[in-house]
Amino acid sequence: MDSSAFREAGLTDGETRTYLALLELGSSTVGPILKKSGITRSIIYRILEKLSKKGLVSYITKEKTKYYQAAPPNKLL
Asked: Is 62 helix (H, G, I), strand (E, B) or coil?
């Protein structure tokens, strides 16, 4: 899926990078998402929250740690 599809879906560059990183990683904590996406720690939580509100990211909490998961790309359509 190319980045223009994400722009058409209303995602920012940071949201796109975060979502694609999560798609590759599967269920993940923030650390690996930061490394893969290149997003700074100061804004990653805001981006994850926005993606969550859009229904593209969900999370579960295991032992006080959040594990984020990307929704399938067909959710964008």
From this structure: strand
Amino acid in the structure at residue 17: R
Q: What is the Cα–Cα distance from 35 to 77, expressed in whole angstroms?
A: 27
- Tell me the pLDDT tens digit for each residue of 15-70: 999 999 999 999 999 999 999 999 999 999 999 999 999 999 999 999 999 999 99
CB-CB contact of 26 with 72 (8 Å): no
Name residue 68's beta-bridge partners. Answer: 28, 59
**Helices 41-53, 30-37: inter-axial angle, 10-degree rounding:** 100
Q: State the Cα–Cα distance between residues 40 and 63, nearest whole angstrom.
A: 24
Taking the C-alpha atoms of residue 6 and residue 13, their distance in angstroms, rounded to an integer, is 8
